[in-house]
Amino acid sequence: MEKKRITIAFDGFSSSGKSTMAKTLAKRIGYAYIDTGAMYRAVTLYCLENGLFEGTTLNEEELRRRMGDIAITFAVDADGRSVTMLNGRNVEQEIRQMPVSSKVSIVAAVPFVRHALVRQQQQMGAGGGIVMDGRDIGTVVFPHAEMKVYVNASAETRARRRYDELRAKGDTTVTYEDVYKNVCERDYIDTHREETPLRRADDAVELDNSNMSIDEQNRWLIDLYNSIVEKQ
Q: What letter does residue 3 receive in the DSSP assignment?
């Protein structure tokens, strides 16, 4: 008997590794993967490129007028990797850089932005067989998801991971202190915003991967997935 195709929701703090583990799990079980954080990052990049920021102040009214002009999709590149497309352009590299990271929580806190992207996310995952990660997937986007994982790790651990990732991609200007400050600022904004703040869903299973290897966390996740689908 074929296993039921369920909805899997990953939530958690920035740089906790949830996107990587969600993507790995999706590939292993043959599900579609949607990185909702990339969607907010793409909107942020649009704002930066179109002069909608003055310092840390976002011109929300102008963004509201332009939301209909922002098309975010996902494609597969020549190496078989999922990439984020902004109005038909591959922006996967740009949205991962510090200029976007330092502003994305501001954009993500705007109610009409969240409402618009949540509607898109719900449409993407309506049929099940999907792994989606973000800040409000298990609480708002898919509150009835059969599998919910809340990923956590210390701010120091997450900052070190993010710093190493940026350095590996060739960013020689960023410092660990800059990344740590950004992680802490994003944590505060994500957990204190008025619109759907980051929190663990009541029925989510928490995974603190501060001291876990990638293999250990992947085994933990596949075991959890198998235990859930066997009960469906």
A: P
Q: Which amino acid is at 229?
A: V
> Each residue of 149-203: pLDDT tens digit?
999 999 999 999 999 988 998 888 999 999 999 999 989 988 998 888 899 999 9
Place of tokens 């993967």: 33
Q: Is 170 helix (H, G, I), strand (E, B) or coil?
A: coil
Q: Report in angstroms the alpha-carbon separations of 36 from 10, 29, 114, 157.
A: 10, 20, 10, 22
195 exposure class (CB count in 10 Å sphere: 0-12, 13-18, 19+): middle
Q: Which of 40, 18, 7 is nearest to 133 (CA)?
A: 18
Residues with Cβ within 8 Å of 207's Cβ and at least 6 positions away in sequence, in order, are 149, 150, 151, 152, 217, 220, 221
**HEC assignment per residue over 24-37:** HHHHHHCCEEEEHH
Q: What angle do CA 133, 161, 36 make, to 5 degrees?
A: 15
Report the distance separating Cα 135 and Cα 62, nearest Å: 25
Phi/psi at 55 (5° precision): 65, -120
Q: What is the value of pTM for the model shown?
A: 0.82
